[in-house]
Amino acid sequence: MDVNYHFTLYYVLLYGLIGIVRLLPIALGCPSAIIIIVKRMWDVFGQSKAVNLLDSSAVAGRLAHAYLFIGPEHIGKKTLALNLARALNCLGDDVPCGDCVPCARILAGANSDVQIISLADGAKEIGIDQIRDVQHTASLKAYESKYRVFIIDGAQHLSTEASNSLLKTLEEPPENVLLILTAVHKGQVMPTILSRCQTVQLHPVPIGVIAQALVDRWGVERERANMLAGFSGGAIGWALEAIEDASIIVERADILDKAIGVGSAGINERFNWAAEMATLFGQDKAAVFFSLGLWTGWWRDILLYKQNCLNLVINLDRLELIKKLASIYGVKQISEFVNSIQSAVYNLRRNVNPRLTLEVLMLSIPKMDDERRQRETRSVSF
Ligand SMILES: [Zn+2]
Hints:
Blueprint: H1 2-28, H2 31-41, H3 48-60, E1 66-70, H4 77-89, H5 101-107, E2 114-117, H6 128-138, E3 148-153, H7 160-171, E4 177-183, H8 191-194, E5 198-201, H9 207-216, H10 222-232, H11 236-244, H12 247-263, H13 267-283, H14 285-306, H15 319-328, H16 331-349, H17 354-363, H18 370-381
Parallel strand pairs: 1-4, 1-5, 2-3, 3-4
Helix pairs in contact: 3-4, 4-5, 6-7, 9-10, 10-11, 12-14, 13-14, 13-17, 14-15, 14-16, 16-17
The structure holds zinc ion (ZN).
């Protein structure tokens, strides 16, 4: 009796201690300890808050039946969704272990129960046929895993018909099925769909985290890693694509050159650019947001240089021009224009007329600082 009692006590204390060790860092809000957990089990960089939420729900067996991951392009929404699919189907002790058969097959894109639904090449919408396929497959028992997982990557592309059809599945979710939707902004998703999903907000990955990941995980040389991380603006997926394809850097430089040129162009050229961008918005919204993101980063660099924060400047390859513009424009002007670009992005995401939005933005490009103008005028007069 005594022996059994002591064995029971021993196991209660042992498993209690393991539980405390696992949960203590979260309970204490210790960021470094949480990062270690994230790195060990979830193959995701810089999304500690989202990962901790999903990890604790998965461990407790309390995952929602549908999630909506919100965040900018290329910050890791699809990667997080695939990690959640692994966590749900993992056979290891620390889910997702990364080593068991389901984890390995999902990682390799070979698990037939985990499907990614996205915009087909050349298509403008995710159509109702794609959602009908999801509904048919969801009604079947999982083939090789515990759960079927459907990742609708880019829910903003769902047609109205497809959204309405998906709503039925969200209202009466089949057993052992998890739906994960991704979108850049909540406003792009039908409110009825939004209300039936648990929203998880993702944020741009800190530049330092990206740079370190590029060095440690992908073997990128430190200086190049710092440059790519800075250029990425927190979009780790962009940095990873740029490692493989150098033309992405050239393309970025071209887009930035055009945006910088608009800043010093006459009103006609500015309005031509606004018209071009409005047309592009109809074909490729992400390209317009990328361009406006680069422009924001450019003016932010000028502001940071003015504030003597050279260590935070991203576009160091254009430092001479940054220096020159920092001497021309005032802090207030620059801050106001950065806000104007952000307002334009906000309005574009809410489907305000793109041409009008971009023309208003063109009119808010800062003029030369008055003091500078007076100083330059005086020097010309003398
Ligand atoms: Zn596993």
